[in-house]
Amino acid sequence: MKSTSLLVAVPAAAALALMLSAPASAGAESAEKQVTRLWYEAFTRHDAALLGSILGENWIDIPSPPEQQKGPEVGKRLLVQLTTSFPDFKVVVEDVIQEGNKVVVRSHITATQKGAFLGFPASGRSISIQAVDIHEVQDGRIARTWHTEDWMTGLRQLDLIRPQ
Length: 164
Prior knowledge:
- This protein has helices at residues 2-21, 31-45, 48-54, 72-85, 151-157; strands at residues 55-62, 90-99, 102-112, 126-138, 141-149.
- It has a five-stranded mixed sheet, sandwiched between helices.
- It is built from five helices and five strands.
- By secondary structure, the chain is an alpha+beta fold.
- It starts with a helix and ends in a 7-residue tail after the last helix.
- The chain has one domain (30-157): Nuclear Transport Factor 2, Chain: A (Roll), CATH 3.10.450.
- Helix 2 runs antiparallel to helix 3.
């Protein structure tokens, strides 16, 4: 009797282990996550055209200055400015979480300042900062992006501000 129980228990335990080790969503990634991942690919590849293709006609960058316009051209200019100041600008996606049409991404940015940035000349110094973005996707494009980057750490790493 014990040997029969063992024969049934071993395959059941193996199947359970396989199920628990499989990703929670073993299916295909959602369209919202796919378009959001293209945002990070565009910045890492320094591809303004790719970024422009995934941003909605009235894309909003939040927070942004009150006078800043809306739309893909704003995003493309931002990408060009960053990748001109930091030619090795790279973003590594660490977490992607989705709730409805909003996709939250935690990422890590590395870059070396080789050009002017915020009015400061090139320093040759590198940054390594964390970022968290929330992208709202509508009709297959990113409509809004709320973002928080750890620029306080980045500015310290660039030696543009010093702790007191």
